[in-house]
Every structure is written in C-alpha cells, then in structure tokens.
Amino acid sequence: MLPPTYVEGFHDLEAVNKMEYRPLGNTGLLVSKLSFGGGALGCHYGKYNEEEAIAAVREAFRKGVNYIDTAPWYGQGQSERVIGKALKGIPRQAYYVATKVGRYELDYEKMFDFSIEKTRKSFRKSLELLGVDYVDVIQVHDIEFAPSLDIVLSQTLPELSRQVADGKAKYIGITGYPVSILKECIEKSNIKIQCILSYARLTMIDDTLLSYIPFFKERNIGIINAAAPALGLLTSQGPPDWHPASEDTKKICSEAAEYCKGHNVELGKLAVWYSMQYEDVTTNLIGMQSLKLVHSNVDVMINGITESEKQVLSAIKDKYLSKLKVKHWEGFEIDNYWKAMKK
C-alpha cells in the first residue's frame, strides 16, 4: 500500500514500494523508516557541495524517504536555507518537514533561548527559509539546556501550541540527549507532545533509549532515533573535532574503524543497519550531504548488509566496542555550557 506522500510522476514507484513506513505515534503521519537529517547541511560536519546536497534531498524523497528534520542551530539557518532550496523542486504532498526552536548560535551567550518572543521570531524565520506555509512537526531543541524545565513547560511549549492553533505547525515534539528529561517533560507538560527525537542513544555503543521505549509507546508518542553513527564517531572518517565523547571512547571507535577499513567495510554503514533493527522506533534520522550517502543508506534500509559485513560487525563488537568503559557523554556538554556561562 502506497503512503499518503506518494506523488505520481515524482516518485520512483519501485523504490517507494520497497521503503517501509511506520505511524509517528498518534499524529496520523506515516513516516519512512529512513529519514533525512538536516544537521549534516549546517556547519558542524565540514564543508559540502550545496548543489549536490540539494540533489541529495530530492533524490532521497524520490526514493521514498518522506521525513526531513532541520533546525536553526545547524549553521545558523544554513541547513534550513539549503533544504528550502531543495524543497522548491518537490511537491508539498511528498514530504513531512520538521524544524526546531530553542538552540541557535555558536556563541555561548546566544546559544539558547526558550522564551516566547524568541520562539515566535525564530519559527517565523524558519518558515521563511524553508519556503513553506507550515511544518509538520515543530520541536523544542535540546531541552536539557534550558535554565529550568519550567521555562520550556510555561513558555516554549505554549507558544508552539499557539503556532499549531494558527496552522503554522501540525504537531509538537521535543529533543534532547538525556532521554530521562524527555520522559520528565512529557510527564509534566499540559501541552500534548506527540513525538520525541533522541540522538546517539540507540547505537552500537549505547542502547539507553531502549529502556524508555515502553514509556513512549504506552503514551503513543512517536520515536525518532537520530544519529545512528553517533555524530560521526561510528564512521570510517571519524568524528569532528568538537565531538564530546572521551578520548578513550574515540580511540576505541577509531580502532574499530581501522579494522573495518582493513576489511573494505564502511563502519557508518554497519552503524546505520544496526540501529535500523529496532521495530519500536518510528524512524531513523540519518545526516546526509551527498548522493552517495543517500544511495548507501537507502540500500541498507532495503537490502540490509551482507554476511561478510555482519561478520565484521560481530568482530568489532567483540574486539573493540566491548572494551568501552563509558558508552555515552551525558552531562559533559551541559557542564561545559554552564561553566562557560559563569565566566
């Protein structure tokens, strides 16, 4: 059965028929198992060719991907601007688009603002950059950085609810690295939260999200699992310089990457496949900058990995990843942020 986002004449029908679609909680959106992460189109993952990035977005949608996520934080609007250009060549029916409010600039003083006024102004700018009249999902970005959760509950979420009432967004979500705060926010909120975005918490090295899935499922909340390659940590290329993981974790993951290279296997491909094996996750949000990555990730979603690649995966888990003493970096970024703010 074709998804409601299928558009005759635009889509590759054969590819769409092979793509898997899942309901995003109780939103009524039927979302592709693989979705497009716009974080890679900002400034945090190095330079990329804008024309190819635009082509990558369009190709992903043509192949049946129907959900794309971005935020002002990704290059201070750069990601939204590039995605906006790409969307001009795609029928509006063919995609669901999500953006965020709350996290903005690299400067610590201007990095976060969860106030009503900033939320309203930022969201208006996002719609302008994306070139759309509404977004399907509007999210509060990295809620753990708010001075208190009360600000998110009393200012940010009510303002997003007003935007939904005005027809500028359809559904509300929240994002964050500590999964515990996503749960706490849902428990305390008077505003209906319909989906959560958790990143790098259901990967080959960290399965924290799993213990929270029953809570989200019980409340029929859509689960977006982002950053299967753990923000570049689980790729042959390795993580960007700013990556918050410990040096020991980076060293062990680098050794796993070298083992993969020696067997002509891309570690990132294994990481994406691994995270896609969890049925209770609605969609897996993967950052993509190029056509090569789009084709690779669509292929992994449809065809999986080979037996030899599964053997390499088993080997790196036994030889390297099993040695990890600390599998996450929860608290590290928050500590650094508040130390910087107190200077």
From TrEMBL:
<dbReference type="InterPro" id="IPR044479">
    <property type="entry name" value="LGALDH-like"/>
</dbReference>
<dbReference type="InterPro" id="IPR036812">
    <property type="entry name" value="NAD(P)_OxRdtase_dom_sf"/>
</dbReference>
<dbReference type="InterPro" id="IPR023210">
    <property type="entry name" value="NADP_OxRdtase_dom"/>
</dbReference>
<dbReference type="InterPro" id="IPR020471">
    <property type="entry name" value="AKR"/>
</dbReference>
<protein>
    <submittedName>
        <fullName>L-galactose dehydrogenase isoform X1</fullName>
    </submittedName>
</protein>
<dbReference type="Pfam" id="PF00248">
    <property type="entry name" value="Aldo_ket_red"/>
</dbReference>
<feature type="domain" description="NADP-dependent oxidoreductase">
    <location>
        <begin position="33"/>
        <end position="309"/>
    </location>
</feature>
